[in-house]
Amino acid sequence: MALILEWLEEMPYIYRLGIAFAVIIGQILLIWLVWFLFKQFNKRLENKDNDKIKPFVIHKFKILSAKQVLGLIEKFLRLLKYIITGLQLFITLPIVFSLFPATRELASTLFHYILDPIKNIAVGTVLYIPNFITIIIIATVTRYVLKALRFFALQIEKGKLKLPHFYTEWAQPTYKILQVLLWAFTIAIIYPYLPGSDSRAFQGVSVFIGIIFSIGSTSAIGNLVAGLVITYMRPFKIGDRVNIKDITGFVVEKNLMVVRLKTHKNEYVTFPNLIILGSSIINYNTSSDEDEEGLIIYAEVTVGYSTPWQTVNDILINAALVTEHIQKKPKPFVLQTKLDDFYACYQINCYTKDVGRIPKTYTMLYENIQNGFRDSGIDMTSAHYEVITENKK
Q1: Of 279, 22, 364, whose CA–CA distance to 271 is shortest?
Q2: Residue 265 to residue 330: CA distance in whole angstroms
Q3: Which tens digit of pLDDT belongs to each residue from 85-114?
């Protein structure tokens, strides 16, 4: 560098002007060439059918169309063109200024503006390599531990691996909980190795994000915790017929945030898990499992005292036995639930395991009860009497 400066000092002033002019012309030509190449490339992108440019898709979800991807490429090329042009101009000025003693100090300052950041970045990158390798090792170990946990969760879910007092439907929620905890633990370990983690700005951003997350996700966290509690309570599973908040339907979705029911009218009702946790739940499937007798459905009729109760019992039991989806064993039975002034109230109870057809089963049971009384010549209507008195003055 000293030899170059000494050579420049001995060079006549006119030669220095010539060199400066040549450098400027050369840079202008280079800038023109760069812009020309970018222009030609943009024309090829616009004129060609661009079959090679595909939409940006993640897990079958279309994030960007092919046209949007093309637009992003054009914007990136335009930005790159401006960056290259700016660097060329920024390099040209120190070279020209260094040719003249009056501006040589300014040239040195401009060179430092360029070289010092590059030098700091290069040195920082080299010094950060051990920390980067540590992060890669920690992340790799975490990834393979999660793969092992996922393998065991799938085996438990499929019933190939059985653990005492651990149900198959617990496998995926437990895996997700462990996944979140493990990644949180991994981030806590990696945090000190991140570049700038000890700076006040980095710490301030972290605290700010934590405050925003804690304030904005109170109900979401509540639903998440409620979802975990419901999972391990096991009040129902997918496909069960349940009653929640006077809504009866089949569980079609159960996740850590909401539960969705599909009613017999094909309506979808969504309940946040916090509401589920604070509500009473009736599960009709728990009484229709293989090791249970079945769910008891019942219907009530009122018949006058002129009809013997034995006759009413026989009619109701026969009506239940001929109803489709009603179990023959255990046998249906009748309860007398009320003795009113003018009639008795009878309740027919019968067992079924086909809980998905309960509305239809009730319809057929009511039809068979009416047919049974009509065939026996018994009128199902019960008299009601009301005495009205008036106070006459």
Answers
A1: 279
A2: 31
A3: 887 777 777 777 676 666 667 666 766 777
